[in-house]
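Follow-up to my earlier ticket, as requested here are the two runs.
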Amino acid sequence: MSDTLNVVVLVGSLRKESYTRRLAQALIKLAPATLKMEIVPIGELPLYNQDLESDAPPPPWRAFRDRVRPADGALFATPEYNRALPAVLKNAIDVGSRPYGKSVWSGKPAAIVSNSPGMIGGFGANHQLRQSLVFLDMPILQQPEAYIGGSDKLFDERGEFVNPTTRDLCTRLVTTFEAWIRATRKPK
């Protein structure tokens, strides 16, 4: 079990200092050495429009698909906007799922962490995202569930978790996700 797994991390917030981005970066730091996690930018992807799908789709779409396709797994970090999934994250999912029959998501193990400054931790966005991922044939890690409330107060000035219980949950999430990928990924 010494081979390193490659995991793409999609952050559903575009703000450079967003709570979601900080949380994703913290998860990357907590990951075991055998789990290489990297944030894949999604903010520059043109909105999905089937009219642009051809032998030469937009270069950002091709680059994104080429980056996600070989990954062993995908971690989705999402805030909640108006009780829903952010449009930028849904667009990235749509871009990766096309053209029909060539989805980069199919069979790729996934995990979700949602967050919000409020108490329910992005529950609505988390479950809306799960609906799309199930349709895309992505085996989704069920436990531990990660709905992180109070995301505006998660970290100190050094970027360290303020609450050890939240840190422990996030550590458990990434270590369990590694085992999940190994158990469910399709052979290459």
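Run two:
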Amino acid sequence: MTNVPTDLLRTLIAVVDLRSFTRAAQLHGVTQPAVSAQIKRLQTLLGGELFDKSAPGVTLTAKGETVVNYARRLLALNDQMLDVTARGSAAAQLRVGLATDYFEATALRTIAEFQAARPGLVIHICAEPSSALLRDLRRGDYDLVVAASDVEIEIGAERTWQEPTAWGVASAAVVERKGPVPLVVVGESSLSRRMSVETLERAGIDYEITYVGASFAGMVSAAAAGFGAACWAKRLLQHPGLQVFDSLPRLPRVPDVRGGVHLRDGLEGSDLIELADTLAAVIAREGDGVLEAVRRTASG
């Protein structure tokens, strides 16, 4: 009997959820040809096309729809089995991933208060960029993830909100001077870096990266010192030396992102659900009324 490797199924789900082979490759830290090769291998194992090549974008065939539904269920069972055998009671321990690029401080405070009220609950936390968290959530490495994305994320996406993006500069004069727009950023995996660069390139505006930081606090400080423009969540561009703009003549508006609290497929439990609800409510509320928590049914 043929066995279907779970890594192929995870790649398929990533392509479908992100609606892009390129984004799926970025999420898994591989090349686009590697993702295409995995999908081709999966199609060979299953004996048919999973994507409709005649349709625009990423569109599943009827067979593909069926496979995706089974894939979600198989991966959920696989991850539950590993979770139970490796750690015993899933209700007693939670693995949480927090986005270093957006909600880490608020989420840490909320989780600490939540855990203090439940002495028997053990919570293991890891902070990483949003893209890495969403990738690892699909792999089953986390039970709950707080992250941001510029594309729709379907996995466990019951608690989401709109997160406005803005530019922070010491003054408009920093970007009005002749020459390329100076840009301050955080490392390669940063969502804010990718979005700022893509926005300027789409608008045909020349730029040069004048500061690459190891933290978002450093990026904000560099912008406040006048080294260039910083792109980040509007609520987080808080510094006495920064002016915040939605756009300027040489800084086009950057699309908003969607913040979310995401649960691993197939997980249940009152502690986990309550924590997810609490995190979404607190983070959205701290947007000073700009944000509104959105509840929607997760697909799959």
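The only thing I checked on run two: The longest helix spans residues 62-87. Let me know what else you need.
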